[in-house]
Amino acid sequence: MNAVAAAENELRIRALGKRYASTQAAGGELQVLDNIDLHVPAGRFVSIVGASGCGKSTLLRLVLGLEDQYEGRITLGGQPIAGTGPERGIVFQDHRLFPWLNVEQNIAVGLRNAPLTPAEKRERVAEHVALVGLQGFEQSFPHQISGGMAQRVAIARGLVNRPRVLLLDEPFGALDALTRARLQNELQRIWQAERITMLLVTHDVEEAVFLANQVVVMQPHPGRIRRIVDVDLPHPRHRSDPRFIALRDDVLADFLEPGVLGAEQPPAPDPSSWRLAW
Length: 278
Description:
Blueprint: H1 3-8, E1 11-21, E2 29-40, E3 45-49, H2 56-64, E4 71-76, E5 79-80, E6 88-91, H3 103-108, H4 118-131, H5 147-160, E7 165-169, H6 177-194, E8 197-202, H7 205-211, E9 214-219, E10 224-230, H8 242-254
């Protein structure tokens, strides 16, 4: 990645705060996030981990651009984030595929607004079908494939427009343990191949350490960064590696201390009005 591309894909969050109106909170407002400072260099994989109520999903929604009422500053490539846009891809916990479209067509939705010819779009879709290992399933519909395969389609759709940042909101949370582990390996492989900037929200400490260059540990009331842990382990990683186990246990120790657990966050906004590539 050249210096210009690196600068364009750099995500910075400075003095970020977020409040919601609440009749149950003192002063009529609930402080959800407080003084969040985070620098995500281009091509880095950063995981945000914390129990329910620490504000990690709220933080991801703000980076996605779903809300414009907050304190502080969020920039991508030095430019303030304003609303949703195709330069920030998103993968959710549930795949949100269109049931009337097949695998190929669902991925192609991510190119709806792309300035490409039909032939270029077909080539891009085929490339990303191969990237997530779904060759042979291009004509299958969502009800004909497994949940893990559906999440692969969602990842391909999130990447097909070649966004500058891919946001992942608990992308494997609804899957069984075996499928989850397999897709973690797949995401690790995809990140190594694409070197796109990735920001993952998860409550799974092992997943966070397995995938990321850095793990951001958050605590609640209000949500703030407890600490940032560097994961200086080579890829591909192995869960049996003593260094991996030591890092995982180090992060887990934070959640054994009092005051880490918290209440649920407000529900996510209606996605029907989002301006995304798909």
